[in-house]
């Protein structure tokens, strides 16, 4: 397993970024100022994580995605651990936002995240079309926070 920082041609990874955030306009809002980490297994791209700085104490994962054929193999967890270890000396908190999807919320909670706050109607107000996960329309953005 190898993790590389992507500094150029970030849009080359749009297909994978769109797994984590299906609206290209939304991805384009943060891609240029994100730090993207790509995880490779046997020289094959499996997952990526886009991180931004919020303030002098907080970083945010804007996108965490794994190709479907590589899911449930620990790659997303490895990226979260990598980000935590990389930034823990300079930042206090890692946050991220997600929809109200029980499977995804449990994934993050098992990795030390706790619910912080909600942005009411985020998915309705910021996406051109309804977003569904597990057959349920996403409405609020749920923010999770972890102490580094």
From TrEMBL:
InterPro entries cross-referenced by the UniProt entry: Acyl_CoA_acyltransferase (IPR016181), GNAT_dom (IPR000182)
PROSITE patterns: GNAT
Top-level taxon in the UniProt lineage: Bacteria
Domain N-acetyltransferase positions: 1-148
A molecular-function term among this protein's GO annotations: acyltransferase activity, transferring groups other than amino-acyl groups
One Pfam family it belongs to: Acetyltransf_7
Name of the protein in its database record: GNAT family N-acetyltransferase
Source organism per UniProt: Candidatus Galligastranaerophilus intestinavium
């Amino acid at each position: 397993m190898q993790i590389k920082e992507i500094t150029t041609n970030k849009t080359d990874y749009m297909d994978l970024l769109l797994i984590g955030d299906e609206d290209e306009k939304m991805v384009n809002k943060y891609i240029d100022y994100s730090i993207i980490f790509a995880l490779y297994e046997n020289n094959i791209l499996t997952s990526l994580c886009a991180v931004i700085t919020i303030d002098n104490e907080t970083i945010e994962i804007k996108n965490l995605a794994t190709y479907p054929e590589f899911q449930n193999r620990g790659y997303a967890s490895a990226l979260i651990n990598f980000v935590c270890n990389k930034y823990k000396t300079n930042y206090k908190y890692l946050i991220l936002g997600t929809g109200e999807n029980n499977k995804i919320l449990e994934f993050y909670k098992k990795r030390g995240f706790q619910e912080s706050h909600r942005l009411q109607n985020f998915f309705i107000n910021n996406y051109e079309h309804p977003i569904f996960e597990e057959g349920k329309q996403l409405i609020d953005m749920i923010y999770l926070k972890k102490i580094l």
